[in-house]
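Hello,

Our lab assistant flagged a job as stuck in the queue for most of the afternoon. It eventually completed. Since we weren't sure the result was trustworthy after the delay, we are filing this so someone can double-check. Below is the sequence as submitted and the structure that was eventually returned. Let us know if re-running is recommended.
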Amino acid sequence: MPFKNVLQGMLDQLPGAVGAIIADWEGEAVDQVARVDDFEIKVLGAHKGIILTRLRQALQRLDGGALEEVLIHFEKAKVLITPLSDDYFLVLTVGPEVMVGKATFVMRRCADQLRLEIA
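-- returned structure --
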């Protein structure tokens, strides 16, 4: 199944979702779907890739184990980040009205599908 179909399925389950992107370890977009301009989602993916890399480095120094998920709350959005492998990660951006628990559940299911495709 193409990545875009999996990402679109995730957004379809989350009214209020803004977009999702799969990016590589350098923050380069692999595939994305968005209800906003694609460029905005690509920039968001690149920036969140930097955060993910820094958090992984900090956890490594602290012997904190593998990073599983990151949740960032902004006044007008929530961003969820999860690694798909050592080389790829998924970023989901939702509006403030979206319940974090539901978004996390849907993102985890999507990430499981994507991991199967990447492997």
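-- support follow-up --
The delay was a queue issue, not a problem with the job. The result is valid. The domain at 3-118 is CATH 3.30.450.30 (Beta-Lactamase). The first helix runs from residue 3 to 12.
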